Every structure is written in C-alpha cells, then in structure tokens.
Amino acid sequence: MSNFMKLIWNEQIKLYAKKATWVMFAVILVIAIGGGLITKFFGTESDFKEYGDNWQTELQAENEQLMAEMADDEFAGFTNEFIIAENNYHLENNIKPQPYDGWEYVLDNSFLTSVISLFTIIVAAGIISNEFKWGTIKLLLIRPISRTKILFSKYVSVLIFALTLLVFLLLSSWLVGALLFGLNGLNPMVVQDMMPGYAHNDVLGEIAKSYGFSIVTLVMMATFAFMISAIFRSSGMAIGLAIFLMMAGNTIVAFLSQYEWSKFILFANTNLEQYTNGMEPTIPGMSMTFSIIVLLVYFAIFIGAAWAAFTKRDVAGN
Amino acid sequence: MSKPAMQLVNLKKTIGNKPIIKGLDFEIRAGEVFGFLGPNGAGKTTTIRMMVGLIDITEGDVLIEGKSIKTDFKGAIQHVGAIVENPEMYPFLSGWKNLKQYARMVEGVTDERIKEVVSLVGLEKAIHEKAGRYSLGMRQRLGIAQALLHGPSILILDEPTNGLDPSGIREIRKYIRNLAEKENVAVIVSSHLLTEIELMCDRIGVIKNGELIAIEEVQTVEHEEALKEVYIEVEPMETAKVYLDSHLENGVGVGSKELSMSVKREEIPQILKNLMEQGISIYGVRVLQATLEDKFFDLIGENSIE
Ligand SMILES: Nc1ncnc2c1ncn2[C@@H]1O[C@H](COP(=O)(O)OP(=O)(O)OP(=O)(O)O)[C@@H](O)[C@H]1O
Ligand SMILES: [Mg+2]
C-alpha cells in the first residue's frame, strides 16, 4: 500500500471505531425501512394498481370514477386532478402504467441525500478538530509525512465516507424497495411529474441524475465544514455553521435575490438541476457554466484556506 | 566525543511580541541522556515543540543528524521519536491499534517490532484494552512505545515521569539508560524536578525564562580530589579552632555547635586523629554531600514567571 493509502486506511479505522459512525448507518437503514413500510401501507392506492392488457379502458374508467368523486366531494379534487392528469399522459403517449416498484422507491429516497450531507458535515467537522481535542495531532504531525499529505488524506477520507453512505443508502433503499414492492425489470421506464408536465425516462438515468445533483451540495458543505474545522480547530463551530448555512442557504439567496451580486452566493449555484428540464434559473442571467465556475472558485477557496491554516500554523497549546 | 545527534543553533521563539525562547545553543550527543531542566513556564515544552517542527522557529535552527527541521522536515524528523507534553492516544482504540496507527505512518515497522516495543515497556497484558481505560502510567508507557516504534536515534520525552509511581519511574529510568548505553540513542528528558532526572542523565541543561543558564555534567563517580564540606561537633571548640586554623590551608568556620571545613575525603581520618591527640572530644562528624540540587537551586532561584 502506498503511503497515502495507508493514511486513508488509518482515517477509516478511526472513523469506524466510533459508535457514532455506526449510528449514522443505522439511521439511514431505519429511515429506508420505515419509509418503505409507510409507502406500502399508507401510499396512494392507484400507484400500486396492476393493469391488464386493456389498460386504456381501465384508465378511462378510473378517470370517470375520479371525476364523479370530484363532483360529489370538492375536497377530493386536489389529489384526483393529479391522478387524472397522469392517467391522461399515459393515454396520450400510449404508455402502460406500471405499479410502483423498488426502483422508484430508490428514486424517491434521493431526498435522503440531505441526511447524508448532514452526517458528512459532522464527520468533516470532526476529522481535524478531534485530533486537536484528543491531543493526538502532535503525534500525527511528528512523522516523516508532510502536513499537506495528512490534510488531504483526511479530506479524501471524508469523501470516501460520504460515498460509502451514499452506496449504503442506494443499496438499502433498493433492497427494501425490491422486497416490499418488487422490481419492474432491470431498468424500467418511469413516468415522472415534472411540475409542470410529465416525462418518461429510464429509472437508472433518473436515479443517477437526482443523486448526482445532490452530491454538489453535499461536497460543497462538507468541504466548507472541513475548512472551518481546520481553521478554528473546533468541530462544534464547523457543524453549526455548515448546517445553518445549508438550511438557510435558499432563504438567504431569496432574500438577497434583488441584488445583482447575489448570483455569486454559493447557495444560488449549488442546485445545478435548475438548468435542466428547461427550468428558469433562480436569478436571471445565470447558466450551468456560470454556476460550475462559481462552485469551483468556492471549492478552491475552501481547500486553499484549510490548507493554509493546517500547514502554516503552530500546533501549540493543549 | 561522539558527533552531535541534535544541535540547537541560536534558537528563538517569539509569540506575539513576547520572546519565549531567547536564543538556545547546545547540542546533544548520541548515546547520552540529556536532562532539560527548568521551572514551570521556563520554555521546555516550547523548545521541544520547535525541535519536532510542531511550531515555527522564529530565529535560529534545530539540526537533527545534521538535517534542518526547518528546511528538511522529513529528513530530520525520521530520526526522532517523541512525546510532547502528555502522552495522548485515541481513547476509543486499543493500545495495539494506537500503535498500528503510527506504524502505518513509517516504512518497515512490522508486527514483530510492535510486540518487541510493547514488551519493552511492559504493556503486554493491557495492550488490547482500549487506551481510554489506561491509567496515566500506562499511557506514559504507551507513549514511549509509540516514540520507539521506528527505532529513532533521538528520543525526546517531555516530562516522562509525570504521573508515574516510584517503581514506574525507576523502570523508565533503567530503560532510558539502557537505550542510551546499548543502542546509542540520544535521549532528551525534560523535567522541572532535578531529583527525578539527575539519576538518569549524563548532562543537565538548565533553562529559565527562555534562556539556558547552565549546562552541567552529572558526576556519577565520587571524585577523590573534590573538596567536601565537613562539620565536626567538638569540645572545647576554641582549642579545636586554633589548632585547625594553623593546620588547614582553608581555615575553619565556626557554627553554633560545629566547626566547618573544606577538606579532601582522604584527609578526614588524619584530622580526627590529630584532634583527639590534642585532647579534644569529638561528638559528631558529618560530611555534606553537595548535591546538584543545591547547585541548581542557587541558579534557578525564585521561580518567577515573567
Ligand atoms: N501559544 C502561546 N502564547 C503565548 N505564550 C505562550 C504560548 N505557549 C507558551 N507560552 C508561554 O511560554 C512560556 C513557556 O511555556 P512552556 O510550556 O514551554 O513551559 P515549560 O517549561 O514546558 O513549563 P512546564 O514545566 O509547566 O511544562 C510560558 O510562559 C507560557 O506562558
Ligand atoms: Mg512543559
């Protein structure tokens, strides 16, 4: 094993020697199972319906029944309208509806990447500051290894941890989904509500897209927490700031969107999905390229600041 | 005299505007145990932090096996094993796993080597327990094991006897002597207690307020030639004083009950015999062992923290 790999190995051992890390995996598993059970037993009935060869007739009958319900009960209108619109999309495009399955469950669980972001922030915030807290930083820095290498082994370890959580989320969602709902083949097509309109796409592509876009926020916030941890050597501060900004990010952008410079705010750019599917960007004049450049600049600043703080400063006190 | 394992060259550290270390110049040779002595706040830990590159050197340099810690950090630090301040460990890992962490950070430390070091510091029984449950003494041992893993030629121990019981201190002392004598390791031991390190050191450097105020060889062999303070309780004192004044070149001092004189060890029996022949009664004789402690206490004086 190369020197750098051994450092990463060391970091992973320290990480998994702590109970808190296992709790994070347990939380994801519990949410995946719980979410599956809730969907199974409280989900919309029509989602699970299996249609026969005459599915067109079945859909039309269903629509008529829904309309009738709406005439009787004005409160039924809200959900029923959605179902009717979706049914019409199937009819117009000649797509046979398929029952909800494990793949769709994986796709629906992509919102859990925000939980992964949270956990990754916690790990990123602690990976440097804990060494200071334990006093072990002194033993780490008196080896024939440059501080730069130690810093990056820690950063890469954080990314590996995030990736591990992500794979764990995908696998557990897929397993729970497959057990509870079954699978419609290896890579079925799914109809998605694009608000407005509907789209018909293969599920693997959609999963890759929705998890992929969420990784941007994850990496940026983890890097931010890592930087704060390297500068202030305190995990509490790093966790607090990163989580606050992650939660308040969109509000901050909305609040400042009247100003021209607000498009340079990190959070105005983390959602790259805003440029897909013909959606309007948050602030006019922004583009995918613009956002990627802004993100790269922030990333470089975060890493640069962490590096400067970690390699240049005295390790004294405590 | 062997070549220096470590050299401090006009070493200075200023934090803010406050000069903490004000120009240290000394060297430590291979195979010697060097005691770094000074009262609390004298700057021992600060100096050690500079020796191992944990803090920047404001001025001057530290050369380890001829390599500058400033410009050739890896080349210099690979010869060093150290404990700085307290022996801190990952509390959630076992002693063994703690050592494995450090073993992975250098080339060529095998599991056999780790076992060897563990048995050297006598930690075999507890090595698979979590380090968080270790007593201070056990952590101190694990700290030393950690510092020795890669077979360094320079060992730096900041207050290694801190928290050890007397038998623990004796063991560490024996062990440190062994390393220096058998493996030719240069050992630097800091302490604020002279009595603790005078028994294991070959030389002692005294630091106070960031300045080196003395470097002394520790005399392990009794010198026959050295003058000793001898106190004699005699009756009648006046007669004895007159007699001794005329026979000793340094003369005698008069205390309340005793006469004091500086003489060589071999002269003592003759002096006593002569006094008795003069009809003087001798009630007691004591020879003062001038310890290093007296000497250094004079040097250090009041421990005033600037
Ligand atoms: N980061 C710092 N900022 C300001 N002053 C400092 C800093 N670190 C150390 N000092 C000062 O430097 C002096 C030397 O401290 P140092 O820890 O080196 O002493 P020491 O000889 O190891 O003492 P002890 O026997 O108590 O361990 C002290 O007066 C301390 O107040
Ligand atoms: Mg100290």
UniProtKB/TrEMBL annotation, chain A:
It comes from the Bacteria. Keywords: Membrane, Transmembrane, Transmembrane helix. One of its GO terms (cellular component) is plasma membrane. The chain crosses the membrane at residues 21-42, 111-134, 155-181, 211-232, 239-259, 288-310. Signal peptide: none annotated. One of its GO terms (molecular function) is ABC-type transporter activity. This is ABC transporter permease.
TrEMBL record, chain B:
Residues 6-234 form the ABC transporter domain. It holds the Pfam family ABC_tran. PROSITE patterns: ABC_TRANSPORTER_1, ABC_TRANSPORTER_2. The lineage of its organism: Bacteria, Bacillati, Bacillota, Bacilli, Bacillales. Belongs to the ABC transporter superfamily. One of its GO terms (molecular function) is ATP binding. SMART domains: AAA. This is Bacitracin ABC transporter ATP-binding protein. Keywords: ATP-binding, Nucleotide-binding, Transport. Gene3D superfamilies: P-loop containing nucleotide triphosphate hydrolases.
